[in-house]
Amino acid sequence: MADAPPMSSFWRGFRDGLPFLLVVGPFGMLFGVLATEAGLNVLETLSFSVVVIAGAAQFTALQLMTENAPTVVVLASALAVNLRMAMYSASITPHLGALPLGKRIVAAYFLVDQTYAAAAIEYEKRPQQTLAQKFAYFMGVAMPICPPWYVFTLIGAWIGTAVPPELGLDFVLPIAFIAMLGPAMRTGAHRIAALVGGTGALVFAFMPWNLGLICGALLGMMAGAEVERRQSLRAGPAATEDTPTPGETR
């Protein structure tokens, strides 16, 4: 495996990324349609997707922009939605952190939910891969996800209001997040964070400019961190008891 050319890893990643087109296509087109309906022109809509390349943050920012929310609130809300990217980055750094600066910038730009999920599974499954193979796989996954995101955004912007409401493209957003959220709920801390964050967002939904989302996200992160802290404290003494002292046999 370590002797395999990086291109074989690239094409394996490309194949693993292809199924995500089922979500990227309708999702990107929906954003293009809604952005033009909100008053953005085709170039602005495409630039939005190219610069931000984060669907949930784009929809959040777009909604707030249509409500004439202050710029600082738009930016803070988009940041709250995308805070998970910081965790993705920390998780993937042991695998790609040794890349040259230019490649790290490229990987950081293409680090989205789907590329991270596929890469994390791949790196755990094949830990013996070289750095070049890992980067090639990551880029392979990104290719059927990120460039099509721009293309479908552009298509949606061109179509604009011509898309009939009965087409029902708005169902893609909740389904996409449910599909990504479900497998991520692996630990009690994850589940508590999701429960508290979602409940908090609903409780504070009355707040203007979508500030309830920020409050819910902060509460969810604090709850998840507290659960992990308590679990670590409980595991600490148990681990100490199970560790033989020097000279002791079990």
Automatic annotation (TrEMBL):
<dbReference type="GO" id="GO:1903785">
    <property type="term" value="P:L-valine transmembrane transport"/>
</dbReference>
<comment type="similarity">
    <text>Belongs to the AzlC family.</text>
</comment>
<feature type="transmembrane region" description="Helical">
    <location>
        <begin position="20"/>
        <end position="40"/>
    </location>
</feature>
<feature type="transmembrane region" description="Helical">
    <location>
        <begin position="135"/>
        <end position="159"/>
    </location>
</feature>
<feature type="transmembrane region" description="Helical">
    <location>
        <begin position="171"/>
        <end position="189"/>
    </location>
</feature>
<keyword id="KW-1133">Transmembrane helix</keyword>
<dbReference type="InterPro" id="IPR011606">
    <property type="entry name" value="Brnchd-chn_aa_trnsp_permease"/>
</dbReference>
<keyword id="KW-0813">Transport</keyword>
<feature type="transmembrane region" description="Helical">
    <location>
        <begin position="201"/>
        <end position="223"/>
    </location>
</feature>
<dbReference type="GO" id="GO:0005886">
    <property type="term" value="C:plasma membrane"/>
</dbReference>
<keyword id="KW-1003">Cell membrane</keyword>
<keyword id="KW-0472">Membrane</keyword>
<keyword id="KW-0812">Transmembrane</keyword>
<protein>
    <submittedName>
        <fullName>AzlC-like protein</fullName>
    </submittedName>
</protein>
<dbReference type="Pfam" id="PF03591">
    <property type="entry name" value="AzlC"/>
</dbReference>
